[in-house]
Amino acid sequence: MQKPYLETQPNENGYFGKYGGAFLPPMLEEPFAQIQKEYQKLKNDPEFIEELKYVRKHYQGRPTPISFAKNLTEHCGGAKIYLKREDLNHTGAHKLNHCMAEVMLAKHLGKKKVIAETGAGQHGVALATAAAYFGLECEIHMGEVDIAKEHPNVVRMKILGAKVVPATHGLKTLKEAVDSAFGVYMETYEESLFCIGSVVGPHPFPMMIRDFQSVVGYESKEQFFEHEGKLPDHVIACIGGGSNAMGIFAGFIDDDVELIGVEPMGKGEKLGEHAASLTYGEEGVMHGFNSIMLKDAEGEPAPVYSIGSGIDYPSVGPEHAYLSSIGRTKVRLCNDEESVDAFFKLSQLEGIIPALESAHAVAYAMKLAKTLPSDKTILINLSGRGDKDIDFVVDNYEVPDTKF
Questions:
Q1: Which of 78, 123, 134, 322 is the most buried (most CB within 10 A)?
Q2: Active-site positions?
Q3: Which of the following CATH numbers is that of domain 62-93+214-396: 3.40.50.1100, 3.40.250.10, 3.10.180.10, 3.50.30.60?
């Protein structure tokens, strides 16, 4: 009998096919080996598992529900559209699913401080929340551009007790935030843990974050049966690094369900106008792992852009690269204008304001639904809420004065 996919990937060296691994400076090889060893022990530890279950149920508010988007379905015509409501997870996005677990791991490793990067600010808010809950110091690195764009989340991080460090070099967005956080971690690794915010980075982080986020997929599988008595035909999620997508995909990866990742097409096809790594990238090593990445003429990480600050990253999780390469997942595109259109439509038709990142998945699902018969179903991972985006949206786009 064939083993379940999640038990076979990655291999012991952290590779999904040829993607993944751990490309580290010598000084960090031992700390990362220690993280891997501790995680392998904890993930099978009944006490750790029970504590995580308790936190998820009594603090995070899990399970989050699945909602049938009746009005959006009627507006689009065709397939039924459902939403996995990670926007209702405490702090407003899926990020807390892995942040609580990462801070628990940090405590088991005897660390006093957690360090992280953030783009849209949701990972930063989630880690600051987890650090407050478990009594650890927290330092969040964020690009200067994103600090201005996502001001509400910056305020939340500071209120929660985190130190917010601006990344002021390069494009001053997510990649630069990772660079900045990793630099500080290299100097403080004995007392701190770098809590990577997606299914990226050196092994074991792509595996760990997927495992911690898989709760989304397992819940979804059970809940969808309550609605439809069967599995969804299509599961859709936005992809930057890809944590929300791997989380929901994990629950359906061994099933006959089409898995679709939606990348940010931004403003156009030119390098620097989008962040569609899987669509336009090539194999390369960045931030300690081998995957598909966007490169400039010199072979360095290319400039990227997306209206969604959490998905403007020039690479993608190695597992996404692998699943796409073997045809298990499909990759589709959504640009800024389509994302904003979906942002307003979901808000006004369903009373749910989505994160601009999540709106990419909603936008593609709306297009897909129109091409399918009414007996087909689509499940979207609504990975976060849009409170953080409302100032930016109303400052840059005209709010529709009537419902669609």
A1: 123
A2: 95, 117, 383
A3: 3.40.50.1100
